[in-house]
Amino acid sequence: MEKDLNQTQETLIQITEAFKRTRQMLARRRTGDYLILWGVLVSLGYALSQFFKGEESLNWFWLSLGGIGWVGTILITIRQIKMTKGKVYFPEGMYIGIIWISLVIYSLIWFFIINRESAGLSGIGVSLLWLNFMMYGYILMGIFLGKEMAFLGIFVTLSSIICGLYLREYFNYAMALIFLIAFGGGGILINRRWGR
C-alpha cells in the first residue's frame, strides 16, 4: 500500500512538472517577436540617423521610434496574453515587466542628468549609453527566459563598444546591421527554438 502511495506521489510530481514546462514553453514561444520588432526599429533608427541635421530633431526621431516600439511591445504582449489566456501561469512575466519599467525610468534619469550636466558625451556616446541600458535588460531577461537572451545582450553590447571605438565614421550603419542581424535573426532563431 505504501509503495503504491509513493509511486502515485512521484507520478503526480512528474505530471505537475510536465504541466509547468508546457506552460512556460507556451508563454515563451512568441519572445522572438519582441526581438524582431525592436531589431527592425533600432536598425531603421541607426540607418536613418545619418540624414538628420541637428540634435533636437534626431532626439525626437529616436523618441518616436521608442514610442512605436513600446506600442508594438504592448500589442504583442496583449496578443500573447489572449493566445494563452487561462492556459499559462508565467509569473516571471510580471518581474520582467517591472525590470523593464525600472530600467527605462533609471535610464531617463541618467540621460537627463548627463545632458543637463554637459558631460561631454557625443552623439555616439549618448547612443552607447542608451543601447547599453537596453542590453542590460536583455541580460536580465536571460536570467528568467534562457541564456539566448543574455548572449544576445552581451553580443550587442560588445559589438556596439567596438564600433564606437573603431568605426566612428560608420557607426550608425554598423549598428543598423548589428541590430538587424542580432535581433531580427535572433528573434527568428528563438521563435524556432522555443516553438511558435
Would you give an account of this structure?
86% of the residues lie in helices and 0% in strands. With 196 residues, the protein is mainly alpha-helical. The chain has one domain. The radius of gyration is 20 Å and the shape is elongated. The model has no long low-confidence stretch (mean pLDDT 76).
Annotation keywords:
single chain; 196 residues; mainly alpha; 7 helices; 86% helix; elongated
Count of individual domains: 1
The helix-and-strand class reads mainly alpha
User: Low-confidence parts, pLDDT < 50 over ≥5 residues?
Assistant: none
Strand coverage percent: under 5%
Helix fraction, binned, reads: over 70%
**Span between termini:** 44 Å
Q: Say how many strands there are.
A: 0
Quick overview of this protein structure:
Helix content is 86%, strand content 0%. It has 196 residues and is mostly helical.
Q: Helix and strand layout, with pairings?
A:
Elements (H helix, E strand, L loop, with lengths): L1 H27 L2 H19 L5 H30 L7 H25 L6 H23 L1 H20 L4 H24 L2
